Amino acid sequence: MADEILSLKTWQRRRLLTLRSLAAAAGVSPVTVFEIQSGKRTPRPGTIRALSTAIGVAPEQVDEFRAAMGFPAATEETNDES
User: Fold this and answer.
1) Beta-carbon count within 10 A of 6 CB
2) Domain of residue 29, residue span
């Protein structure tokens, strides 16, 4: 579905990327990706763009990015894919 809203980690897994490969593709450190995924860091606009490009989705489709941009978070059902 083109307008799904999922966590960064779920998008990472759907794209069959490791944390390190996602970080490398986006030009950020693996620690940055981990901290965004774990809620320890709020991503900056440039990081949002880089990671969105690396996973091939609009920033609005990543739950952690929605929060950083002031959009409402996705529901647990939408965001709870393993």
Assistant:
1) 22
2) 8-79
Instruction: Decide if 67 is inside a domain.
Output: yes
Residue 1 maps to a domain: no
Selection from 4, 68, 70 nearest residue 36 by Cα: 68
**Which residue is listed with tokens 């897994």?**
13
Q: What is the mean pLDDT of each run of 10 residues along the chain (82 residues)?
A: 85 97 98 97 96 97 92 60 48
Q: Which of 53, 70, 54, 52 is nearest to 6 (CA)?
A: 52
Query: In the chain, how many domains are there?
Result: 1
For residues 47 and 37, what is the distance between their CA atoms, to the nearest angstrom? Answer: 13
